[in-house]
From TrEMBL, chain A:
It comes from the Bacteria. Keywords: ATP-binding, Nucleotide-binding, Transport. The keyword Electron transport does not apply. The keyword Nucleotide-binding applies. Residues 21-247 form the ABC transporter domain. GO terms for molecular function: ATP binding. This is ABC transporter ATP-binding protein.
Automatic annotation (TrEMBL), chain B:
Residues 7-77 form the Transcription regulator PadR N-terminal domain. InterPro entries: Tscrpt_reg_PadR_C, Tscrpt_reg_PadR_N, WH-like_DNA-bd_sf, WH_DNA-bd_sf. Residues 91-170 form the Transcription regulator PadR C-terminal domain. It comes from the Bacteria. This is Helix-turn-helix transcriptional regulator. It comes from Kineosporia mesophila.
């Protein structure tokens, strides 16, 4: 496994793994030019490489979701730049951003965002079908993704027929389905018991170890501890970075 | 206290020599808290003195096989049957240090908190890494270590969470 291989390298060697996500002095100001502009994110620089899982922690309102929105191309920075898989999102059209998101980004939303009119399977299939994958193949992948997060039996259920934790796992399956290389998860373990939360972290970690890059927002230090690095936000700024040693 | 009770509990499963007891204690607690053989014999001598343990037989080399007495068995039942006393909190150096730092003149409490949190997260990362390396599914001796690791993780998590809260409280002043 690549993780094992890395542990034998001296820490001083430059990291040659490709950078999949980089934020360069990225800022997001809401209501710019109004009387009370909100600096949701204030000049954050961050790189996430292939094989790397980075946790983002910080108090409520510190800009964690904003950071993820920018990283996932759901929103654009008001200054600075965000580069996903080699593509700078600042200059992209809305359509091009949507295509980039579909192709490269798996996103677990803080509010889950499952489509109420679709079953668990259909929710997971949706991004794949938009990618042009055939229905049969998408169904197979959806079954596998749901199995990975332990809710295969919910295949034909609608979101309103599931518990919060079950919906959460379906949302994670939707983010992990297909070959997406950047996984962004906003509090993915929020509504889960400890054992299920741990199972989700295993799945996320495995996906990253297989060659994805991950950014994980969490309030739980024990989930952040699955990451290689933890960065802290306060008032839209990155204030420190801890547990910096790479997990080997 | 915990070593005494643990040795009694292990002896309730059958008689043991001192070195066996030590080995059993260490393996069954995930090798988290090593004890030296001297500590085992000191504890056994006290247990014999208190009438909870007695010599079952003595080997030719002089090593003693110990077993529980009737009172020892009662003591074990009492241990399983009552919760561990949490009334008197352990003196925790982190809690004491941070509480003092909050009001100490000339001390940057936030720096103290940040350094501590980085350390707590570093330790948490180490436990998590070890947990990830346990065999899957977890079997045999590894189960004890997994359970103890889970405990250490929750304690570290609680400490990290508490340090966050302290920081927020101090900022709100
Ligand atoms: N559309 C918006 N318009 C104005 N302000 C916004 C908007 N979206 C977010 N904000 C503000 O930006 C700041 C950062 O919000 P964000 O959602 O990134 O916080 P967060 O760290 O994810 O918090 P939480 O832990 O509560 O999810 C907050 O002060 C929030 O009120
Ligand atoms: Mg948020």
């Amino acid at each position: 496994m690549s993780v094992e291989a890395r542990s034998t390298e001296p820490a001083a060697l430059p990291d040659r793994r490709p950078v999949l996500l980089s934020l360069n002095d990225a800022a997001r100001v809401h209501g710019e030019g109004t009387a009370v502009p909100v600096r949701a994110l204030n000049g954050v620089s961050l790189e996430v490489r292939v094989g790397e899982l980075v946790a983002v922690m910080g108090p409520s309102g510190s800009g964690k979701s904003t950071l993820l929105h920018l990283a996932g191309g759901l929103d654009t920075p008001t200054s600075g730049d965000v580069v996903v898989d080699g593509v700078s999102i600042a200059g992209l059209s809305v359509k091009a951003r949507a295509a980039l998101r579909r192709r490269s980004v798996g996103y677990v939303f803080q509010d889950l965002n499952l489509v109420p009119a679709l079953t668990a399977a259909e929710n997971v299939m949706l991004p794949r079908e938009l990618d042009g994958v055939g229905t049969r193949q998408a169904r197979l992948e959806a079954r596998e993704a749901l199995r990975e997060v332990g809710v295969e039996d919910l295949f034909d259920r609608f979101p309103e027929e599931m518990s919060g934790g079950q919906q959460q796992r379906v949302a994670i399956a939707r983010a992990l389905v297909g070959p997406r290389r950047l996984v962004l998860a906003d509090e993915p373990t929020g509504a889960l018991d400890s054992l299920t939360g741990e199972a989700i972290m295993k799945v996320l970690r495995a996906r990253v170890d297989e060659g994805a890059a991950g950014l994980l927002v969490t309030h739980d230090a024990q989930h952040a501890a699955w990451a290689d690095r933890v960065v802290f936000l306060r008032d839209g700024k990155m204030v420190e970075s801890a547990a910096g040693s790479r997990i080997s | 206290m915990s070593v005494r009770q643990s040795l009694l509990a292990i002896l309730s499963e059958g008689s043991q020599y001192g070195y066996q007891l030590r080995h059993e204690f260490e393996v069954r607690t995930g090798r988290t808290w090593p004890i030296n053989i001297g500590q085992v014999y000191t504890t056994l001598n006290r247990l014999v003195r208190d009438g909870l343990v007695e010599e079952a037989e003595r080997g030719e080399d002089g090593s003693v096989n110990y077993r529980l007495t009737y009172s020892g068995r009662e003591e074990v039942e009492r241990w399983w049957g009552t919760p561990v006393d949490r009334q008197a909190p352990n003196r925790d150096e982190v809690a004491i240090k941070v509480a003092l730092a909050a009001t100490a003149p000339g001390v940057d409490a936030f720096a103290v908190i940040h350094r501590q949190k980085a350390e707590t997260l570093r330790v948490l990362q180490g436990y998590t890494k070890e947990k990830r390396s346990l065999p899957d599914p977890v079997q045999g001796d590894a189960l004890a270590r997994q359970l103890v690791l889970d405990h250490l993780i929750f304690v570290a998590e609680a400490e990290a969470r508490w340090l966050d809260l302290v920081e927020q409280r101090l900022r709100a002043r």
